[in-house]
Design a protein that fits this description.
single chain; alpha/beta; Peroxisomal Thiolase, Chain A, domain 1; 2 domains; four-stranded mixed beta sheet; 11 helices; 13 strands; about 25% strand
């Protein structure tokens, strides 16, 4: 980052030994098979929403100004032209989530770019499963354990309802586990099939914005304790120095779902960019001050790319430039907003870049609640 706004002076010694900090050694991803070009999505949405808005042409600018070129989705274009029941959507969510999640786990554990040797599922001690776009009991990670050779003693931690903040929260919870069990190897698996939540009969502005932004994505991160026996091929990997969760009081209607007979109806406030501008900087300053940074600046912003306006709000709030959000913008351009996996896609791109040892990253995502998840990363 080029801004001095994130330059925090130390107020004391570091609270946790660096040698005891968990590390993120690998990220694997899986892109669903159907590609939706934004130009085509715009044409289809214009026809679908024409009867719902008197000023539909003005509303269609959300597609043109999104800075999204294409998105990956779990169903063909024809699926969006018909009505679907909650049961139909959820059955499809379970089927595809198990298939795609298994592929993302294998991509992570067999990532020869990041790991010197592949890991076996049986070596994994815990799975933190993150999702908000479907429901399943037994949860998805249990079903995946019946497909891949995990130990039957693998701990399962399904986390539902965090939306776009879920990827950051999952890594934070995994780091807490790895601090308690420093030999542990754990997975954070984030699966969101946002396309399956599109409502054919919903002519709200929130549904139109969601149709322009949201996509499907699957990401799996390997987080290890400081004593775990795993070797990286990378010159430096991010360790997790600290994290902070913050809830904005009485903000339930900023984003989330209304659950109705036909499924999940998106709640998406038009005020989100302004909320970020007015709330985020104080939150970030408080977090970084508590991390005792000894006057050092943050070098990288590992941000969830919620949309063009969200990234611009990050820049305004923290005094940044488009260069500071370049990696997040590229993920947005190629994938859209995938909700919880998005930040792991951004992290994967940073891990494959030449980041120097000792450089710091701020990992940040915002989601329903309204909630902020912040993590401090240091490449070691």
């Amino acid at each position: 980052m080029k801004s001095d706004n994130l330059n925090i002076v130390s107020t004391g010694s570091q609270p946790v030994s660096q040698s005891a900090m968990p590390r993120i050694l690998c990220v694997g991803t899986f892109d669903p098979p159907f590609i939706l070009e934004q130009s085509i999505a715009s044409v289809v949405a214009r026809e679908r929403f024409r009867g719902g808005f008197a000023d539909v042409e003005r509303m269609m600018s959300v597609f043109d100004n999104s800075r999204i070129d294409k998105r990956h989705v779990s169903v063909p274009l024809e699926w969006f032209l018909e009505e679907h029941s909650l049961k139909e959507r959820n059955d499809l969510y379970i089927e595809r989530a198990v298939e795609y999640g298994s592929a993302a786990i294998e991509s992570c554990l067999n990532n020869s770019v990041m790991l010197e040797e592949a890991l076996q599922p049986g070596e994994i001690e815990a799975i933190f499963f993150i999702s908000t776009t479907g429901m399943a009991t037994p949860s998805i990670e249990a079903r995946i354990m019946n497909r891949l050779a995990f130990s039957p003693h693998t701990k399962r931690v399904p986390i539902w309802g965090l939306g776009c903040a879920g990827g950051g929260a999952g890594v934070a919870r995994a780091s807490e586990y790895c601090r308690a069990f420093p030999k542990a190897k754990v997975l954070v698996l984030a699966i969101e099939l946002c396309s399956l939540t599109f409502q054919h009969d919903d002519f709200s502005k929130s549904n139109l914005v969601g149709a322009a932004l949201f996509a499907d994505g699957i990401a799996c991160a390997l987080v290890t304790g400081s004593e775990a026996n795993v070797k990286s091929r990378l010159p430096a990997v991010p360790q997790i120095r600290g994290h902070q969760t913050t809830l904005m009081p009485n903000s339930e209607r900023v984003m989330g779902w209304d659950i109705k007979d036909r499924g999940l109806y998106v709640v998406f406030s038009r005020d989100i960019p302004d909320i970020i501008r007015g709330w985020l900087k104080e939150n970030v300053d408080e977090f970084l001050s508590a991390q005792h940074l000894n006057g050092r600046k943050i070098d990288h912003l590992v941000a969830h790319p919620g949309g063009r306006k969200v990234l611009e709000a990050y820049q305004d709030a923290l005094g940044l430039t488009e260069d500071d959000t370049a990696v997040a913008r590229e993920v947005l351009r190629l994938h859209g907003n995938m909700s919880s996996p998005s930040i792991l896609y951004v992290l994967k791109d940073f891990m494959q870049k030449p980041v120097g040892r000792g450089e710091l990253g701020l990992m940040t995502a915002l989601g329903p609640g309204f909630t902020s998840e912040l993590l401090l990363l240091e490449w070691v």
